[in-house]
Amino acid sequence: MQALPEPVADAGCRIVGLALTLRRAEARTMYARHLRRVLGEDLSDSEVRTWTRRAFLAYARYWMEGARLPGVTAREIEARMIYPDGMEHLERGMAEGRGVIMGLPHVGSWEWGGAWLALKGYPMTAVAEPLDPPDLYDYFVEQREQMGLTIVKLGPGTGSALLKTLRSGGLVGLLCDRDIVGNGVEVEFFGEKTTFPSGPATLALRTGAMLLPTVVYSGPGRDHSAVIRPPLDTERTTTLRADVAKVSQALAYELEGLVRRAPDQWHIFVPNWPSDEQFSNPRG
Prior knowledge:
The protein is α/β, with parallel strands linked by helices. The chain has helices at 6-23, 25-39, 45-68, 74-79, 87-96, 110-119, 134-146, 158-167, 199-207, 240-260, and strands spanning 100-104, 124-128, 150-153, 171-175, 185-189, 192-196, 210-218, 224-228.
């Protein structure tokens, strides 16, 4: 992908995206469920098909851009990133020296935003799931480090590494609209109960770091745009457990608004609510 001219890579990813739209029936079903949560149950089947096709194309673009990003020049990264709406919140949080947590949904291309922030003097630490084979994970980490990102492997030492970053006044970016581990905190998300990772709220409450709901969208055109929302209220009021639940719920409501701005860029094609499990294939 890095070696190909961008128009060729873009055309290839569109072909893959359209092919996946046709072949991945379970992913289509799951995305349709999520889409109706976001846009309403009264969507017609034709509208769902149109949104689904756009979603698969957006997902293919995400992987294409992620593969090409380590080879993109700093000048081009800056040129294709529209100055974020709400950047003043991040600048204030970093200036205060307490650390900043960006709570991100699986929308658009957060990695492009991370590369841009590194160029602006705000290198980000992020968490990644282990990949098989291990050599693939090592390659992934190496490529992200070239872009100015620090990657922490999801596992027993994740919390300690993030605490260290925040206590030194650093920036942490956490994707938090999907509870991968399965031990998160219950929230209402798009009108239905599910769980969110408790990490963003817990870290903010324990360190005093600023928690900013954030999104990086793909577009308009070949560019990228970002929205950084005002900091959430993370003042301690009662027990840590109750405060984590309260802050996580506030984050969920913020992420709802950010997802609604571009639901076709929301890369969640798997079960994300308990009621989704009956529609998933246990063998797939």
